Amino acid sequence: MDPSSLFRQLLRMPVVHRTALIAPTRPHARAFAMLAPPLPHSRFISIPRIVQPSFWASLIPKPLKTRSEQPRRKEWNPATPYIILGLLVGSQAIQILWLKQERAHNLRRAEAKLGVLREAIERVQKGEDVSVEAALGTGNEADEREWAEGKSTLTDTNTRHGES
Q: Do 96 and 141 belong together in one domain?
């Protein structure tokens, strides 16, 4: 073996190993060399970063890196049917409560209109001079529409209960 090949092998060795072979000039030099982080391998020192494979591997996005693996199939959550059922039942309960509230509101409006009508009839029967148009709101489109809605609400309620 020629001395130049031995020298090249010595240069290719990590720093920690080289310092272990060479006798220290000072007593603490060897301890300091053991604490120092190892330098990269000598053949990578002269290679530009763009040529190293790790540079190109770092440019690949994560979703494309994991694509080679088989996609994991997500497990079915056993609570899902109960959640869906709860949502459906809750939605229907809210809908029923809303319909009850709307129906009660319509009945109150109809009862109020009937009260006004009864009062006007009583006053006419007593012989008082009553402006029926003013009391019942005839001539006013909004009031007439309310009377028509009240009448349809009452007829719908009566037909549901078997009354005619």
A: yes
96-149 tens-digit pLDDT: 999 999 999 989 988 988 898 898 889 889 988 888 777 777 767 777 777 777
Same-domain status, 8 and 55? yes
Q: How many domains does the structure of the chain reveal?
A: 2
Q: Are residues 92 and 145 in the same domain?
A: yes
Q: 115 lies in which domain range?
A: 80-160
**Global confidence as pTM:** 0.40
Instruction: Judge if 94 and 33 occupy the same domain.
Output: no
Q: Which residues of 16-47 are buried (b: 16+ CB within 10 A; e: fewer)?
A: eeebeeeeeeeeeeeeebeeeeeeeeeeeeee
**Burial class of residue 113 (count of CB atoms within 10 Å of its CB; 0-12, 13-18, 19+):** buried
Strand locations in the chain, DSSP E?
Answer: none
Whether 70 is covered by a domain: the verdict is: no
Q: Report how far apart, in Å, the C-alpha atoms of 140 and of each of 20, 120, 152 are.
A: 110, 17, 19
117-to-28, 70, 147 alpha-carbon distances in Å: 114, 78, 10
User: Cα dist. 90→94, 101, 126, 158 in Å?
Assistant: 6, 17, 54, 30
